[in-house]
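User: These chains co-purify. Model them together.
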Amino acid sequence: MMAVPDDIATGAETAADRAGEDHSSHSYGATFWIALVIGWFMIAYAVWGMYAQKADANPPGLLKWVFGLALLHDAIVAPVVTIVGLVAAWLLPERSRGPIIAALGVSVLVAVFSIPLLRTFGKRELNSSTLPLGYGRNLAIVLAAIWAVAAMAVIVRTVRARR
Amino acid sequence: MTKTMSATRLARSFAAQRDKALEDPRHSQRSAAILGISLGACFTVCFLTGLYSHFAQHPPGWFTLPASPTGLYRITQGLHVATGIAAVPLLLAKLWSVYPRFFQWPIAQSLAHLIERISLIPLVAGALFMLFSGIANIDLWYPLPLFFPTGHYWVAWLTIGAMVMHIGAKATITRQVLTRPPAAAAPVGGVEPDDRIVRRRFLTMVGGASALLTIVTIGQTVEPLKELALLAPRHPDAGDSGFPVNNTAAEAHVLEQITSPGYKLEVDGAVATPIALSLAELQALPQRDAELPIACVEGWSASRVWRGVRLRDLLDAAGAAAGVSVTVHSFENGLYASSEINPGQAQHPDTLLALAVNGAALSPDHGYPVRLIGPDRPGVMQTKWLNRIEVHP
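Assistant: Joint model of the two components:
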């Protein structure tokens, strides 16, 4: 009889699970193949629709944006975020590392989200209800709130560690 | 020779970094599964509410836009935009979480695995496009070389198709990693926090970012939260007469026609007696009040009290048969120059030819002299600057 390792016997998550090699063919059952057919059918419908309405959808321009954004993410955004994360983790003291990296990430996200508002790309001279707020001031308030939460988290951790 | 060796060493060290990253609980299958389920729920809500708006504006034969509940369009489209915004941190976190797996080598272990990985291309590309194009659109920013509703609609089918495939590929593993207990606690006295704490902190941050973006934008449709709408592209109180305007009279080039002294609203088509009424004659008819939202597909809305003539009263006055459908026509040109009203909506007591809002006559930007306002209609189908009501047999 074979010895069963503890983690398998208990069903607990193992390092191998975390590393996540899930490519063994046994995980591709009927669900996978059925979903595959339905999914590709929907994709085919999407491509048909784009070309059926090509005057509005402009498929070449559309697909350039669709795949361009993915390329931008995978080739630029993700590596930059990874490197910045590694550098920040290396520079920052352990206790403040998590909250500062989290605050940095959320701040960048909110700032990027606000770019079209700050630059007022969509402001229309003849329509006062378009982008009506003071977005610079408002972004500053949101960022201040994010960093206040991060500062509180650092303080709480420091106090807890001293006890 | 040396070059080949150093390239091999570089590849090995890269692979070692990748495997080290995958040991991190934030890159674990459990994190990916939790983020994936959240994202799947958001995208499903976005897809269904998006379809609802699509059917409302381009009704297929089997679909009839209901007249009640009154706020259905407002709720579905507020939810559509809010859910899309909340999905932004989830999507970025999910992509970050699984990014090390992007560098799996060899690329695939089996044909099924290869197909699964190829299916990720439309999924990731489509998801990024849907959120980017949607947010640009609510910001009234149009950088894409296409008509937004058409492009957003078809890429939605592409994305959801890819999502269905991804769910099929991941259903088993997701169930497995979520039903078994998480990894054992950290070594006793270890300085590194427990995996569960690391994962929980990461997911809390992601959820917090979603909540934050929701809080600072949802006030554009949930009026009690309007003071918190710091980063919303519209504000329910901002605009002519104290609420937003999609398209102003000046932008629509209708100012001259709507202020003409000879203005008449015509009711014709399948009626016993075609009629043409001046503004004074419309004002002399029985006036009704209805509190109805003006709700935009862009996720903003504002509820106001409208006053005017019931559409069904006017149809009766012209001798239209019961249960007719109607097209209202505007002085405006272009895509939203007219809109269809199905029999159920035309007969609804709250479907008004509004002459006033919040106790004051309509301003030019809100549709002077007469606009349509009815329950559960997309904002662009609450047609302004009416000049003709065409009754269909």
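The longest strand of chain B covers residues 301-310.
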